Every structure is written in structure tokens, then in C-alpha cells.
From TrEMBL:
Transmembrane segments: 7-33, 39-61, 73-99, 105-126, 138-157, 177-196, 203-220, 232-249
Keyword Transmembrane helix appears in the UniProt entry: yes
Organism superkingdom: Bacteria
Organism: Chryseobacterium carnipullorum
Entry keyword annotation includes Membrane: yes
Keywords: Membrane, Transmembrane, Transmembrane helix
Protein name in UniProt: Predicted membrane protein
Amino acid sequence: MSQEKRTIIFFENVFAVVSYGVIYIALLLEIIYHISDMPWAAMLSIGLLFSIYYLFILILLRKKLDIDGRIQVGLIYLFLILIAFNSSLAASEVVTVVLRKQLTFGFYTIHLLQWIPFVYILWNAAVMKDFYKTKTSYLAISVSLVIGISYGFYNTYILSSSTDISSIYKIKEHFTILYLPIIWTVLASIFIYVSLKKNIPEYSRIGFILIGIMVLKLYSYDVWQMDNISRITAFIILGVILLLSSFTFQRLKNIIKNMVDKKEEEKKN
């Protein structure tokens, strides 16, 4: 590709980004104007949800709009960042406002609409041009999924278990100690399963990292909230987990190695 053609493509991409950005800002300001009398948390949640759907529409229409491959990848990364931000900070702020009786529970459920485009992106990210060329893409997908699911259950549990803001601390502690490790274990198992089924080693690493974070959290914080008998039991369980993890990791390593060797033999034949 000549230097002149590269320059033309560069300015075309800049023009496209600026155009989509101007349209986005105009629509966002119009939405904010109409909801300016609502609490700040509600404005933030609606603004992020609009941003998520705006990016989703651009990704859906990427071929018709002739969006450059690099811009497509950037849109997906930005989409995942907004999903994580909306699931964590924005949703948590909405929960606080709902418990203060400034918003209804029905408003909280609106932010769950983010899962429609999110699930689509999760299933179809592989067909996006150049997205999986780097290992960062697997990490971005995984982190956004873990944050989305964890905070989804976390905030829903708080709203369903609390009647006012005064009881929120104990409920948060209960969820963090009891339910969050279960959620992370299930997610880690799913990552490892997908890694084996689709031969994607990155997901197995992410799965084991998630288990490691969970164990570190459990034995650096959670265990000290227990009584002495529970602590002894927890450390016994830790030994069993480490032993099983060692066998599982070795087995996983052998399975992946056999898959690679089998593919190399098929190529030679």
C-alpha cells in the first residue's frame, strides 16, 4: 500500500470517528436535557445505556457503514469498558438511590437491558475483523463478563434483601463472603471448559487466575471473619483445593499438549 493511500485511509477514519462522535454527543445531550430533573445516578445509568446501544448499532452496521477494521476493534473495546462501568459503578449508584426511595426497583431493571447487546457481542466477537489477534481481547471479554455477572447478582441481591440503606453493609458482607466465591468458581469452570472445548489456552489461564484471586481473597480476608473451628476447616479445604488444582492443571496441560501434537500430525499427513 502506497503512502498516499495510507494517508487517505487515515483521514477517512478520522472523519468517520469525528462524525459518529458528533452525532453521539448531540443525541446524548438531548437525552440528558429531557431527564435533567432525575437523580444523578439515573442520568448516569441512562447515559451509559444509550452509549452502549449506540456502539452496538455501529458494530451491527459496521459493513454497511464501511467502518475500518481497527475502528471496529476499538468500538468493541469501548463497548466492553462501558459494560463493566455500567454494571459496577452506575448500577451500584442506582441501588443506593432506590434504597433511599428516590427511584423505584423498576428503574434498576432498566440497566439489565445492557445484556441484550452484550450477549450478542460475546457470541459474535469472533467474526469481528482482527479482534482476536491479541491476547488482550480474551482478557477484555473475560473481565467484562466477570464484572457484569458478579455485580449483576451483587446489586440484585442487595435490593432484594434490603428495605433501607441502614442494613446494606451487613448484606454486602454476607454476599461477598458467601455467594461471590461460588459465582467466581462457576465462571472459572466455564472458562476452563470453553478453553478445552475450543482449544483456547487463554481462557484456561483466566479461569485459574480467577480461582487464585478467589482463594487469595478467601484466606486473606474472609477467613478472619470466621470463628476458630471454621478457620481450621477452611485451611483444610485450602489444602484439598491446592492438591486438586495441581492435578487438574497437569491434566489440562497434557490435554492441550495432545491436541497440539494431534493437529501437527494431521498437518504433516
